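Pasting as-is:
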Amino acid sequence: MPLDHDRENGLMAVSVTEPLYLSEHFMRDGHSAEKANGTMTYIRFEGHLFGVTCAHVYFQQYDESGVASKCLTAFGDRIVYQFGTWVESGYKSHFRSMRNSAGDTSNPDIAIVFLDEAYESIHMSRKSKSAINLSAMGEPNWKGASMCMAAGFPTEHKTQTEQIVSAELLQVIAECTTPISPGREKFSLFSCLSEPHNVYLSGMSGGPIFCDSVNEEELALVGIIFEGTPGSSEQWRARGDSSFYTDNDVHISGYTVTAEIFRGWLVALGYYN
């Protein structure tokens, strides 16, 4: 499945991802296209199901005083899943962050939640969602990867009717500007388009990055998005005249993912011994 098969790649990408909304507790704020979101990627590893997003998405649940004013939320068919609960000591998110605080830059910008069989059968099956089986995935073409496809749900490009909020999956196919290999923690993608694209990437954090597998019959997961430029439209308008980026440019940064790296994340978060 080479990268130029946009429709097939898009169907695959949307099936393994989910918009992850920042909602007030007990849905006091309702639901709208203006609500901020990140992206969650479903990964199956050694028979267990996990949802992956970014630590900075996780920390958006908390205000400046550390109070949990929001909850990470997935919307299903007449069902709303809020990934958190109230315990004696206060609010407890079901996600676990690899960063100890919003200002921590010494650890990967990754947060992961364990998902049980009930979530898979009740929520994912109704939305035709599946998970990337990292243990059985084809080997990425590490040496030959010159372009990758990143996917996620940008916050500012949702639409709304009286009954439905629609989050459109954005696919970005861009050139690798740094080598991608299992030995590199991070990598970058960059492309300059022929005309301004007017797309803002904030909200794609936590989305998957794919490249061709060795046999080119399928795409292989190689990364998780943690940053994209242009970010929000507000930040973009406020940039100075000396900004390196133009309206034609797109830049995405991701953490490399392999089975070994993912296991290390799970160990660090206490999911594995």
